[in-house]
Amino acid sequence: YPAEYIRNFSIIAHIDHGKSTLADRLLELTGTIDKSATNKQVLDKLKVERERGITVKAQTASMFYDYRGHRYLLNLIDTPGHVDFSYEVSRSLAACQGTLLLVDASQGIQAQTVANFYLAFGEDLTILPVLNKIDLPGADPAKVKTQLQSAFDMDPDQVLAISAKSNLNVDQVLPLVIEHIPPPTNTVQQPLKALLFDSWYDSYVGVVCLIRVVDGIVRKGDTIVSNHSKRKYDIAEVGIMYPEPTPTTSLQAGQVGYITCNMKTVSEAHVGDTFYRLKQPVDPLPGFVPAKSMVFSGIFPVDSAEFARLDESIEKLTLNDASVSMQKETSNALGQGWRLGFLGTLHMDVFRQRLEEEYDARVIITQPTVPYRVVYANGDSKTVRTPAEFPEYHEMASTVSETQEPMVSATMIFPQEYLGAMMDLCSQHRSGEQEHTFIDESRVMMTCKLPMAEIVDDFYTQLKSRSSGYASFDYEECGYIPSDLVKLNVNINRRPVDALSVIVHRSQVEFVGRSIAQKLKKVIKRQLFEVAVQVVAGSRVVARETISATRKDVTAKCYGGDVTRKMKLLHKQKEGKKRMRMIGNVEIPQEAFLAVIKK
Ligand code: GDP
Ligand code: MG
Question: What would be an example GO MF term here (predicted)?
Fold first, then answer.
């Protein structure tokens, strides 16, 4: 396929601005998919994606389009819309020459519009602004064009306005792509150089790799080498996503498509890797910054008998999501489990939902922890991913010189009447200096630095509720600062329960301590003896609650005689105990571990 008739492009947008709808329209218009109702949002393939309306994994689709006497091959690379998945966005952008920046004409520029614009701008892509949803009564295209001009210096006369839903002006989108986005450079004669930008595991064909062929050509039967591992692979199949994998005879410079080869697991498919032909090594492509875990959580089976089955399920799920890091963990309270690292809390929640729905697993997830850093007096330092790894009180005094926490630089966009509420919200979450500018006469863009630990919990929910849903938010990590951190431990009748420990800033010790003690008091049932719940920082008790004793005798109501009824009741009581964890002689219900995390 001549490179001059190929275009590789993506659509970037804030969540819900209509990316998936537009992608569907373009696939319909080019006859790649049928116009049937069952095909809604074909690029959103996972069940969680359809349910939550978010794209988690970037998807790619090719289409053919006749324009001015030529047949063009257009490769559309979908991008996820949520902050947690922004590393997926940069992967997709590396496979294109240009992008459509889609903005909802009734909502205007939002925080992820800004973040995505800068990602594309940094990649030197051609950026074509498109206003969507102009059919809505609340649409104000003129105002949003002004925002595009003041925020990104774009020419208001160059902005296409469409409705992906009603198909208005959608026919102008592909001509715009063909005329303004440059074709990939034609280097078919060069030795093969291909960028691996995504991969997944398919139970029939094994690992499928999405590649962008930068130079040369690749065919079925070729032997290629991974620059990263120097391993050799024989290509079993090459093809394009049309939108399902469709075999072709070759993929050549400028094309985007898939290959299958004798790869066993997705961990071999190192995203950002360069493939070259055997005995024809090339200079590797720049690659990517690897996905970094921002939050770590312990995951344990609700019923410890399900450990082996859960182990298998987690393994399968991580095969398809290389951005989840995993290591085994043992807790004195919850037994054997795993410490998993996620890109953010939404990513964590999506993972949990997939485990429960696709693998029918029941799990306990402990309080998420960000990666803290501990610097020792002797100059050593380590990253702490779980409260258990954090030094105990006596070590803090004797061997630790400094503790540090990761920061993010946050961007928020909202109507000006919420400025006060948003400033308060950030201050309450230990923000640094806040700065704000107006992007039009009524909308404010605010930026500030926040501790990452402050945004993993309920920050996003509070942002939405305090702005009546109007504020949008995005962030990127921006390094570590020294921070006075304290580990809070929980003792139940003097026994420490490691799975309930948390790391907090010193200013929050009393508040968090009290709230943990109160929540535990609510969920732990009264026992035959008094139970003391203590939250301690070192040897200092920061909060204490007492659960008074009760005499629970399930047989009290059977007046002696009826033996079978008595047996039945005793058996029932035993069953009930299965859902409890014994900490010393205290029964702790599963809910206790969950209750502590839910604010
Ligand atoms: P994404 O998150 O950017 O992929 O957005 P979706 O394509 O999932 O669209 C979000 C919502 O906006 C859906 O309910 C769509 O039906 C709706 N939507 C998309 N385009 C339009 C449009 O042009 N007009 C109207 N009125 N609604 C639209
Ligand atoms: Mg979508």
Answer: GTP binding
Kind of pairing between the strands at 502-505 and 485-492: antiparallel
pTM of the model: 0.75
**Residue 135 annotated as part of some ligand binding site:** yes
pLDDT at res. 581:
60
Q: Which ligand has its closest atom nearest to the C-alpha of 17?
A: 1
Strands 363-365 and 295-301: antiparallel
Is 80 touching ligand 1 by the criterion CB < 6 Å? no
Task: Please tell me the least confidently modeled range out of 10-14, 27-31, 312-316, 569-573.
Answer: 569-573
Give the Cα separation of 75 and 488 in Å (integer).
Answer: 52
User: How would DSSP label each residue in 558-579?
Assistant: S-SS-HHHHHHHHHHHHHHHTT
Using left for φ > 0, alpha for ψ between -120 and 50, and beta otherwise, residue 140 falls in beta
Tell how far the Cα of 20 is from the centroid of ligand 2, in angstroms. Answer: 4
In degrees, to the nearest 5, what angle opens at C-alpha 249 toward C-alphas 246 and 254?
A: 85
Q: What is the pLDDT of residue 598?
A: 47
Spatial separation of the C-alpha atoms in residues 417 and 237, rounded to whole Å: 57
Q: Let me know how long the chain is.
A: 599
Three-class DSSP category at 136: coil
Residue 270 among known ligand-binding residues? no
